[in-house]
Amino acid sequence: MKDTNACADDTCRAPVSQRTQVVDAPGTSATVKLKIDDHELNIPMGTTILEAARELGIHIPTLCHHDDLCVAGVCRVCLVEVEGQNTLQASCAYPITQPITVKTHTRKVRQARRHIIDLLLSKHYGECYSCFRNNNCELQSLAKEYGVDFFRFGHPEKPLYEVDRSSYSVVRDMNKCVLCRRCIRTCIDLQEVGVLEAAGRSDGTTISTYLDKPLGEVVCINCGQCINRCPTGALRAKDRTDDVWAAIDNPEKHVVIQTAPSPRAGIGEEFNQEPGTPMTWKMNTALKRCGFDKVFDTNFTADLTIIEEGTELILRLYKNLVQSDSSQPLPQFTSCSPGWVKYIEHFYPEYLPHVSTCKSPQQMFGALIKTWYARMNNIDPANIVSVALMPCSAKKFECNRPEMRDSGYKDVDNGLTTRELAQMIREAGIDLPEMPKSDFDNPFGTATGSGVIFGSTGGVMEAALRSVIEFVTGKKVENFYDHANIIPVRGFEGCRYAELQIPDEVGPVPELIQHLVPNWDWLKGATLKVGIAHGTANAKKVMENIKAGGKFSECHFIEFMACPGGCLGGGGQPIPTSPEIRAARARAIYAEDAAYGDAGKARKSHENPAVLRLYSEFLTNGPCGHKSHHLLHTHYTARGKYIG
Amino acid sequence: MTIRNNMTLSSVEKNKGLAAAMKMEPAGVIGIIRGSGMKGRGGAGFPTGAKWHFAASAKGERKFVVCNADEGEPGTFKDRVLMDEWPDLIFEGMTIAGYAIGAQEGILYLRGEYTYIRKALEECLAKRREENLLGNHVLGNSNFSFDIHIHMGCGAYVCGEETALIESLEGYRGEARNRPPFPVNTGLNGMPTIVNNVETFAWTSAILVNGADWFKAIGTSKSTGPKMLSISGDVECPGVYEFPMGTTVNDVLDAAGCDCAKAVIIGGASGHCLPPAEFSRAICYEDISTGGAVIVFGPDRDMLDVAESFLEFFADESCGQCTPCRIGNVKLLEGVRMLKCGKCSTNCLRDLCALGETMQCASKCGLGQSSPNAFLSIVRHFKNEILGRACTAAES
Questions:
Q1: pTM (2 decimals)?
Q2: Predicted ipTM?
């Protein structure tokens, strides 16, 4: 399942020098003869030497190359010898269009690679054992692969650059940067944000921001995709593990953690498990052994989000279609991805009225923990430390937004990434894969399959549709889609569009929202149009389509996720990432959803008993009611893309 | 006066070549250029006719003719003189090229430091538009419209590399692209583009007037035609000279007035350094190719100073994109400075030379591939001079 649409070719702003180069007859059936080391074969015209080598199992080392990104050809580590050429050729950037003979490890090649590694090390400040990427660093691996046992061209004795810690989410340390420019290509090409660019030249070249401003002051959306693709420790998420340990160590504090669906699908990779090995129940045990007082499932508020956001959608539809009130315009955009929210605040602020006012599941949970949960358990909210385990670096920014204090306290005190939690688990001496299984804690314990699939692109849409279809038709989703799997909204295509026909026969309005709409007659036979985009480059495509009055402007509801693949590809997930790894994590997530069904548990948000209990005991004026508006909804800031 | 000997271009009648081209099929024009055997005058020596042929056969909604007037190689100034003296021949050559490959637009990428020439060039262009030598239906040819504008460089040496030049034209940082594909297929804005040196276009006009055979009769069999050289350094008469391709270094030195040269660097900072024993070598593509720079060093020059000065230039001008060039030039410079104060061991020098060879074969573009040339050839030919310096602790 190749994530082919991750790069938005038609809107691409990356310099041509760093874009996939078009060669004659690409993708046609024409083949060309290649002789590489001992192999001779015919390959499709335009295949790069690197691709061909990989296909044959020939290892060529790379550094600036990344499966998600366009070609750069700048590090020169992947050089090979092409017969008849005076110079060595970068195999990642050499499309084969005529018969060639390639040698991948001649003396000349080995010497050049070794020199390049020596040169990179001569500018790479830092010691491996004090680096968070120790044992997971591509430069370190290369040095080992090429037997580096001394610094031929020296090694920096002191740092040259100040570490940029200005952002809530991303820490940038140019001292460790090897100028592979993956972060630039990620930011410009994959994400279409364009915060990072090369500045200066020669060995004064740096990766810089607009006017070299700190990352916290530029239009960075905190998605952290650059972190996931950095080969070294130059980029990392801001580490909050010390704060969390301090809270755990403090007996006065009641430390709770909510865990999002994606970390459990990814954290196994930090413990040498195959990508896509689910760790849900073992992770619960590990968290408790780490010392968290309660372990909750963010899927609870994912289900709650569906009820709130679904109700908001129904209200928007009713207002726009029946009452001709366009104060809350269509299509409604999802708001659970904080990277996406900051993206639209910067780049399309005029469309903010389209964004659902619902807080993200993380922040809804935060607000409820320090109100409902605190009251129920008679705990002073001031003594609760609320931690959120997220696959995301942007969540760190989100929990620090000034508007996220509706409980009267900071709703979520700390966001942890999957990588940080793995670190804590290791520090506690816990072998995660060997943990016994345990359940989430009450009162939020039970979640549904719909909450789980929030982790994948299309998941929010599928969860919402499961509930909306049942609300409106009064019938089970299974009548329309086998096993309630709404396949049309699944997949990894960058921008997706789907239509759902609402039957002529509608059901009664469920009790939960009876006070909001009188009946469903106005939806009889209507066509519900929905859109999905993941990765902000694709979000941009959809936004531009809406601006131009294209088919996405006719949508009623659009799911936007800042990260390629959705949250499972988030900036806080284990490194490395690739289309294959993300697909494996998605399989884990959909398998967990299916397992809810197999176990006879609820798979639809509106069937979540804890959510229903919340509405009967606490949010008594229902979804989108006064109290829910106060605690679960928010507003946004039109930031614009021009910064002072 | 910087022109030092008889210049063929002085006697070439303006616009006669263009008029002749307009009477031919584009393929016929390319045939003449191919027949002349002319190779690019920028120094790389790619056959001009072949380049045009590729661009002419490439598919593209639009095509571009780019004149590389980003003359940044230290020791090269013949393009400046060409633009001062014969702007018409250059624009005429570009127009002929445009006709030959089917382009509608030409761009002269002018070195930032040559801003002062721009006014005269613009006036020349305006006049050519008035005379219908540019614009709609050039010289009444209803199938051919062509115009030229000038784009200013901003001082980056790397923008003389054709793909970096194209990046710069597109508004990006001047950085070389991956090749293949080549600009003749995927150039400016992804369209087929030819990038030729100023001198190449001037000779194009001359060839269309005097014929391919005339051009071919000058020079050697593999390097046809005359070549402009910029001669500077320790000579009596520095300036721009014209020689037939294949002229020996000795003859060049005689003409410029120097009988005691210790070394000559052909090709500027990125060129090769020759000791007197090699002065009998010929300046042509099959022996020592050059874009036109000949820098002469007298007996009192310190060759390490020369290497240091060139490497300072490259350590500053590397675009910073690829590893070997970005860091390699700096390391070579550090090495030269160590040599100067007698602190570079022979082991260390061997490492540096090996690094230089890696840079030559591993760098992404011509800049890094040629920047170690001068250093390596100085080490090769002047080893005794550069080793054995007194160890001067003060400079450590």
A1: 0.94
A2: 0.94
